[in-house]
Amino acid sequence: MLGDGGPSLPSSGARHRAPRRLLAWVLGFFLIVGGGLALILHLTVDLRDRTHVFLGHVRAGRWAEAHAMTTPDFQARVPLEVMPGWVGETVPSARRSTGEWINGFVSVDDEYCMEVWLAGERLEDSSVFVIMHKHEGLWHIAEFTHTRLPRCEHE
């Protein structure tokens, strides 16, 4: 019996609060995760944009513009006059690609490794890795290769 000190049934208000509480937790979780993802995307927009612009220059054969987006170390290793041949030997798929998708990136210290999937037909390799360093306030390409470098590995 209900009034004699025996077990009591939960009130209808308590029964309705449990699903609401669960819904609040689920919504809170998705808001936090979504907010974190939005923040990461916002903070990396310059990196991603620079990668797309660089690859667009390579695809179009605008070598001076592509070369200007590289680090001084890259420019010392690959002078402008040899860049077309270097790209043809080192990352030939980049020149023949029709577009790209940045699959992901890894950040270590002051550099980012962008894993980029190339779009196009009959490409030797559809992935390239673009290492980015900040130089004079802008992101510059420090390395550009089909080879997955150790610093590009996810931990």
Mean pLDDT: 80
Any idea of the CATH class?
Alpha Beta
Number of helices: 6
Could you give the distance between the termini? 61 Å
- Write the element-wise H/E pattern from the N-terminal end onward: HHHHHHEEEE
Segments where pLDDT lies below 50 for 5+ residues? none
Helix/sheet category: alpha+beta
> What coarse outline follows from CA principal-axis ratios?
elongated
Rg on CA atoms, Å: 26 Å
Count of extended strands: 4
Q: What is the CATH fold-level name?
A: Nuclear Transport Factor 2, Chain: A
Strand arrangement in the largest pleated sheet = 1-2-3-4
Structure description:
This protein has a single domain, classed as Nuclear Transport Factor 2, Chain: A (Roll). It is 47% helix and 23% strand. The chain contains 6 helices and 4 strands. It has helices at 12-43, 45-60, 63-68, 72-77, 83-90, 92-96; strands at 99-108, 111-119, 127-135, 138-145. The protein has a 4-stranded antiparallel sheet. A hairpin with a 2-residue loop joins strand 3 and strand 4 (138-145). The protein is elongated.
